[in-house]
């Protein structure tokens, strides 16, 4: 999270020092989904994703991963991130954004997650 409240995503290219910029987003979920998309196209089905059950690409994605350029990967990841951001933010516009920033700005890392903060909450809000 940047100090101005945006969540950013970037990924290193395999066997290179360069990075692929994936964009900046209003929610951490959108940034994570953009990262997952790029990682999937770079590593294929063996990638360790944040949301492994929610990746949606064609069956020939493993073959595409070899041929895709950094620009193509950036474009696909940005599309996914923008869609997730739109879904996350559609519930209340600016108020929802401020609420998300406040919630993720200073999380209590020592607190044990309760049943109300399960992963099901995120997946159900994205559908």
TrEMBL record:
Protein function: Probably acts as a transcriptional activator. Binds to the GCC-box pathogenesis-related promoter element. May be involved in the regulation of gene expression by stress factors and by components of stress signal transduction pathways.
Compositionally biased intervals (Acidic residues): 117-127
GO BP field: ethylene-activated signaling pathway
Main localization category: nucleus
Domain AP2/ERF residues, every copy: 1-52
Family membership: Belongs to the AP2/ERF transcription factor family. ERF subfamily.
UniProt keyword annotations, A-Z: DNA-binding, Ethylene signaling pathway, Nucleus, Transcription, Transcription regulation
Gene3D superfamilies hit by this protein: AP2/ERF domain
Disordered, as annotated region: 87-127
Record-given protein name: AP2
